[in-house]
Amino acid sequence: MRKRMLRKRILSVISLLLVLTMICSLIGCGKTDADSTTKSFPSTGVNIVENGKSDYVIVVPEGNDYATNLAASELNTFLKQSSEVTLKITTDSGITFSDKEKYISLGQTTLLDSAGISVTKEDLGESGYIMKTVGNSLFISGITEATYNGTIYGVYDWLRYTVGYRCYSADEIVCDKMDTVPLYEFDEKYRPSIDVRELAFKELMTDSLYSYRMYTYSSNQGLWSSFAHTMVTTYLPYETYGAEHPDWYVANGDQVCLSNEEVLQEMILQVENRLDIFPNSRYVMIGREDNSTICTCEKCAATMAKYGNNYSGVELEFTNKIAKAVDEYMAQKNPDRQLKYFFFAYGPTLNAPTTYNEESQKYEPVYKDTEIYDNVGVLIAPITMDFSKAPTDSVNQAAYVSMKGWSDLFQQKNIAIWSYCLSPYAYMFNHNNFGVVQEYYRFFHEIGATSVYDQGNYDSAIPTFAAMRIYCQSQLGWDCTQNYEDLAMDFMDHYYGEAADAMKEYYRFIRAYYKNMDENDNSTGLIFFLMDDKNLWPMSTVQTLLSYMDDGLKAIEPLKENDPERYEQLYNRIQRERLSPLYMMLQYYITQLSEEEKDAYIADFEKYATMFAIEGTREGGFDINTIIQNWKNS
């Protein structure tokens, strides 16, 4: 009773702040419901499945196209989940189109051309699709090339429109039960808000099927031949070249000198070699190392001076040279292979070499002869942003201006974003970006970003609404007009089932508590903010958090008898979320627990941290087992 009264008092003081914040967010967002989730389509009067039977055949292009073949398999998987019907799959070899035939054509089949349907990269990008009904047949196609995923994403959308499919997590996928599945009159062409979406959460990075179902790319799909900090780490390791070529490097290998002709030629060779190793890759990263070092030799300094003493100009020119040489190489080896080359706007190169023109209200290049090749882009990593605030908030002005500058400089082409959705020093605590994620994805879309890599907890699973974060962020990358709160509430209804109300209250308490901390304790959404400061989490608050978990467990109790399998699933999901307040209690207040409480809490923590592969409390930490042992020894 005492815990319940306490949490009510806390909520009564700060809930108004949260409500006002959410209302303001909704007002500022414009549309709150996404067209892609609410569309309805007229029926053709023809049924794909009728009374548990079907005459339809899935047709895929002849050849070994993994993504399209997977699309066919996924269509069958969830059509069967809905209707108990599995369709035959065949290739387009020897098949001709007519209005009366009953085909579901996936990818760029010969039937697609026969039906008068064209797909182009200009229209669909890398992950868009067409969905069109012609006669009795349905056509779904993106671009059928390696790492182009439009067809499979189109299949997931068709399943959503037709059988109520929705993937909330790897183990929570719903479809309506239907004896009859209609063929709707489709005439859709969809290009997502962000063309290439990567969410760096461990669950997605280690489960490519889950990644597909979340409409995201995963690292093992081979999109990039190299990624992140590559200049020294990938291409020119100091251990390999440093002894013989010390003049290539700055600060004993921190960076390389980009004005050194030998560095350029060896880098070109290594980029070409890596492209041969990864024949399906299309993106090349010419990425500075993760430090603030720049080369200040005479040649680099002269180039910097042209760009207003901004080193990003040096990296732009260097990337142009790489692109020109490698494109010439590729024209001879594989002229159909189209590549894009990216350099970092990060650390000392975060700011664009631009100046603001008040008359045009645009950022213009400092150096009037700035040259940007058509296939050269910039990967902007605004690590200094406070991700608990909108990008337009005054605290984010510097990073916002930098990103707008790059967008104008590149004329909204070939803009990629490295965003952040983690607290690298506090994995066991909720990263405070709830609700404003939608504002970031809308901003990224506004400035022309076609690729977003959102760095989450890539090296360890986490307990803090991980599945919900993945779901909401993947949906917003696909269609940024959606509303975060709508997505979050819908997720909880399905993922937590009978415990949804309790978990929503827990979520609202966390939101309200963070809002209060922001107002009173100067907590922030900066990714390096130490959210694990004990002073932010008094014992009474931790007890309140645990009481919400108790409410959730109580709510599912009837399932123990009625549906034991679902009970166990929901029970484990609540226990995963419970790990966060359990960690606080054991880490901060273990001496105030009885031996019985201590042993029970440690046992629960160890069991569920192991079950959900939660290995570290911070980036690169992998310290969970050590921490548990310390608790046991205390």
Describe the structure.
This protein is α/β, with parallel strands linked by helices and 634 residues long. Helix content is 45%, strand content 14%. It has 23 helices and 20 strands. The strands form six sheets. A six-stranded mixed beta sheet has the order 3-2-4-6-5-10. A six-stranded parallel beta sheet has the order 11-20-19-18-15-14. The chain has a two-stranded antiparallel sheet with strand order 1-9. Strand 18 (376-380), helix 14 (397-409) and strand 19 (415-420) form a beta-alpha-beta unit. Helix 1 crosses helix 19 (539-555) and helix 16 (466-478) crosses helix 17 (484-495). The longest helix has 28 residues, at 2-29. It is globular and about 75 Å long. The protein starts with a helix and ends with a helix.
Give the SSE layout.
Elements: H1 2-29, H2 35-38, E1 43-49, E2 57-60, H3 66-83, E3 88-91, E4 103-106, H4 110-114, H5 121-124, E5 129-134, E6 137-141, H6 150-163, E7 166-169, E8 172-174, E9 181-184, E10 187-190, E11 196-200, H7 202-205, H8 208-213, H9 231-235, H10 238-241, E12 249-250, E13 255-256, H11 261-277, E14 283-286, H12 298-306, H13 312-333, E15 340-345, E16 354-357, E17 362-365, E18 376-380, H14 397-409, E19 415-420, H15 437-446, E20 449-455, H16 466-478, H17 484-495, H18 500-520, H19 539-555, H20 559-562, H21 564-589, H22 595-611, H23 624-633
Parallel strand pairs: 2-3, 2-4, 4-6, 11-20, 14-15, 15-18, 18-19, 19-20
Antiparallel strand pairs: 1-9, 5-6, 5-10, 7-8, 12-13, 16-17
Helix pairs in contact: 1-18, 1-19, 3-6, 11-13, 16-17, 17-18, 18-19, 19-21, 21-22, 22-23
